[in-house]
Amino acid sequence: MRLKALLIGLVFTPISCFLQVLSGPVDAEGATLDVPTGVPFENFFLDKTMRLDLYHSGNATEEHFAIDEIVSDGIWPGSKTKLIDHFDLGSYFFEIHDAGTKALIYSRGFSSIFGEWQSTPEAEKERGTFHESIRFPWPKKPVLVILKKRNPENKFQEIWNMTIDPSSPQVNPTDLILTNKIDVILDNGPVSQKLDIVILGDGYTASEMDKFRRDIKRLTDVLFTVEPFKSRKNDFNIRAIETPAAQSGVTKPQPGVFKRSPLSVSYGIFGSERYALTFDNKTIRNIASQVPYDLMIIFINEKTYGGGGIYNLYTTVSADNKFSEYIMVHEFGHHMGALADEYYTSSVSYEAQKITVEPWEPNVTALLDKNNLKWKSLVEPGTPIPTPWNKEAFDKYGYKIQQERDSLRKAKAPESVMEDLFTRQLKQETQFFSAEKYADKVGAFEGADYTQNGLYRPQVDCIMYTRHMKFCKVCRYTLENIINEYTQ
Fold first, then answer.
1. CA-CA distance, 300 to 303, in Å (whole number)?
2. What is the pLDDT of residue 345?
3. How far is it, in rounded angstroms, from Cα 42 to Cα 40?
4. Is the peptide bond before 121 cis (omega within 30 degrees of 0)?
5. Is the peptide bond before 228 cis (omega within 30 degrees of 0)?
6. Amino acid 348: pLDDT
7. What is the DSSP letter of 255?
């Protein structure tokens, strides 16, 4: 699950561009500079991470930034050869420019909790503040940090900037010393050549640390049974950090359960009962700084179905639900690949907008120009666009399931009853898809991203659509290319 961004329709750079290389670094105005395309890491950076902590405030129509602190966040975990982001993903984007030459030396796209909150009804009525972090290699010399956001024309437009001098007394170069126990789950080599994952746990007591480690093994083992992760397991490192809680479990506001867990994970985010996140960004960043990491997963010691995934922020997953394996892989798809939800019968707390331009997410399209489908290179000749499927019957069944699900929630039915409903739904969906003429083809199947009509997904089924444990070819292709950016 992830809540819909305010700008529902945004232009996306075609997937074929994933493999292209920019012509060279540009200055803050976008002019190409006479600097080698491959940024020489050692010329600009030290082998450590700078973390810029910010307060992101505003409402539905405005946003502002204030600096919290600038600190060292451990050794640099990312690639030292692929420093410029070419994917054009996320609702936000930041650039690091050398302050002297204005050359672009690092960039990354991302999404944020504030960006999701800004699309909720609450943001229409009141202001909110969220803590966020931007992480990049530690610069040797002063740098200009430029933060951008997509405008209505889907161009990343500057909304804030600041200059950072690493020798300034306001910059703390000392690593935070913590004593949490670290468990090495998977070690395949140097961090600069691997995709490094850190796993944190919330709601696990000291006596449940063995369970935490078992949960990690069970759910990461499942992750590596699903392509493209199965074929690329050797490209990952995984480390876990233990944070014992005083009591088992986390906060669940809807049933009236409140706890003070180490990472402050809570269900019920933005009014969505199964959406589980933490707003305590500084705590999770400080704890995670003990190990090198590119991506973060937070295990929740709960049976209640729930989780979340935000691009380049983190994944959360309830560890003890019957569908925890699905939640793990699905939410990791959001976090790692900026993949959109492809289902459209679930209730969510966003304000729907008219679709006028192409979504930026790689696995959905508004099909405004069917001759230039963003994933057209994966479409076989003869596949009709849009692609027919038995949508009417599927939707009728899907909405019946949603009504039953809503009634069970209102009745506060046991989790096992909800799990039985999902099992029955999955079995029926399998039967639906087995009869589809284009079940194995890439095309444009109507219904995606919480929108019944007007948005299309690449294949009739995918783990971003149902609970079947398989990514469609477009999602897999997207994830494969992102892995390459960390490892090749």
1. 9
2. 78
3. 6
4. no
5. yes
6. 43
7. T
Burial group, residue 224, by CB count within 10 angstroms (0-12, 13-18, 19+) = middle
Amino acid identity of residue 208, one-letter, is E
**pLDDT of 289:** 98
Q: Which of 247, 251, 305 is nearest to 278 (CA)?
A: 251
Q: Could you tell me whether strands 104-110 and 45-58 are parallel, antiparallel, or unpaired per DSSP bridges?
A: unpaired
pLDDT at 29: 40
* Domain residue ranges of the chain, discontinuous segments joined by +: 15-172, 182-337, 370-468
pLDDT, tens digit, 9 for 90 and up, residues 50-97: 999 999 999 999 999 999 999 999 999 999 999 999 999 999 999 999
CATH number of 15-172: 2.60.40.3250
Q: Which residues of the chain have pLDDT under 50?
A: 2-36, 347-352
What's the rounded Cα separation, in Å, for the pair 177 and 8?
Answer: 42
Q: Which residue has the tokens 């493999």?
A: 19
Residue with tokens 């039967």: 431
HSE of 6, CA atoms in CB hemisphere, 13 A: 24
Summarised one tens digit per residue, pLDDT across range 109-119 is: 999 999 999 99
Distance of CA 333 to the CA centre of its chain: 7
Q: What are phi and psi of 45, to 5 degrees?
A: -130, 155
Do residues 182 and 241 lie in contact, with contact meaning Cβ atoms separated by under 8 Å?
Answer: yes
Amino acid in position 407: S
Give the residue from 101, 130, 137 showing the smallest Cα distance to 116.
130
Separation of alpha carbons 279 and 286, rounded Å: 14
For 226-265, give one letter per residue: b (16+ CB within 10 A) or e.
bebbeebeebbbbbbbbbebeeebbbbeeeeeebebbbbb
Helices and strands in the chain, H and E counts? 9, 18
182-337: CATH superfamily: Collagenase (Catalytic Domain) (3.40.390.10)
**Chain center to CA of 323:** 19
Non-local (6+) Cβ contacts of 169 within 8 A are: none
Largest CA-CA distance found in the chain, in angstroms, rounded: 66
| Residues 240 and 220: beta-carbon distance below 8 Å | no
Residue 125, CA atoms < 13 Å, CB-side half-sphere: 3
Q: Is the dihedral of CA 461, 199, 172, 69 positive or negative?
A: positive
Tokens of 466: 């149902």
